[in-house]
Amino acid sequence: MIKVEKLYKSFGKLDVLKDISTEIQKGEVVAIIGPSGSGKSTFLRCMNLLEMPTSGQIYIDGTDITAGKADISKIRQNVGMVFQHFHLFPHMTVLENMTYAPIKVKGMSKETARAKGLELLKRVGLEGKADVYPTKLSGGQKQRVAIARSLAMEPEALLFDEPTSALDPEMVKEVLDVMKSLATTGITMAIVTHEMGFAREVADRILFLDEGRLLEDRTPDEFFNHPESDRAKQFLQKML
Ligand code: ADP
Ligand code: MG
Predict the structure, then answer these.
(1) Residue 45 CB–ligand 1 contact under 6 Å
(2) Residue 13 CB–ligand 1 contact under 6 Å
(3) pLDDT digit string (tens) for 149-198?
(4) Nearest C-alpha neighbor of 46 from the set 86, 88, 81, 87
(5) For residue 100, what pLDDT band results from cuts at 50, 70 and 90?
């Protein structure tokens, strides 16, 4: 579903991504791991054009989104993003957060958007919170709303950038559980995470980035048991 070919990204003189090529199949769950500053967020952000690649191609369903005339709004509808810090609209209720873009951007009717929103809230275990404002929610609840809000756009793929890194430890599991159940629905997922247990259990594939290079692209079993690069070995020794 997503094909990345010789992707490079620089910020000024800083080369952040170097020659990254990989493919993510439809329905696949890919965990992106690596040290801080290795380019994980930048890589993720290139996949829905929150960052424009310096060179190389990214194809979504066969369409080159780096070609210039790509419809960015349409790409972001199809490839959603969940951030570390939730990014909920504070002045809207939970349900308004969820129905805003489907109505405005997708032209969904208010009734359909509300019905769909309520159904998604149920799916993330927050059916009672539709009319509450985000400030009244815990971090874990906010992130579950953010996930449900992304799903309301009916994306083909969802990108997660450290979705549990800003959460108190006791709230990490409720978010990972939602993501785990999502992973079984056939949606394509790319997840930047430091949760090694989760990556090992849920991901179909691990991408390991180090200093902007994709050093490993393999199954969790291969990656965790037999990492090839010294960098990955060192990283795992620190993490596990
Ligand atoms: P990671 O998510 O793996 O921690 P990032 O992709 O956030 O890494 O960052 C990789 C490198 O790119 C870092 O050195 C960071 O400072 C730099 N960087 C990221 N975004 C920008 C930006 N918008 N402008 C300049 N430098 C950036
Ligand atoms: Mg990051």
Answers:
(1) no
(2) no
(3) 999 999 999 999 999 999 999 999 999 999 999 999 999 999 999 999 99
(4) 81
(5) very high
Query: Does 11 contact ligand 1 (Cβ within 6 A)?
Result: yes
Q: Which domain holds residue 88?
A: 2-239
Q: Nearest Cα to 8, choosing from 65, 68, 48, 52?
A: 52
> Which of 38, 41, 231 is the best mutation target for the ligand 1 pocket, counting ligand atoms within 8 Å of the beta carbon and taking the most?
41
Rounded distance from Cα 43 to ligand 1 centre (Å): 10
Phi-psi region at 190: left, alpha or beta (left = phi > 0; alpha = psi -120 to 50): beta
Ligand nearest to the CA of 85: 2
CATH code for position 110: 3.40.50.300
Complex ipTM value:
0.98
- The number of distinct structural domains making up the chain is 1
Residue 52 in contact with ligand 1 by CB distance below 6 A: no
pLDDT over 80 at 240, yes or no: no
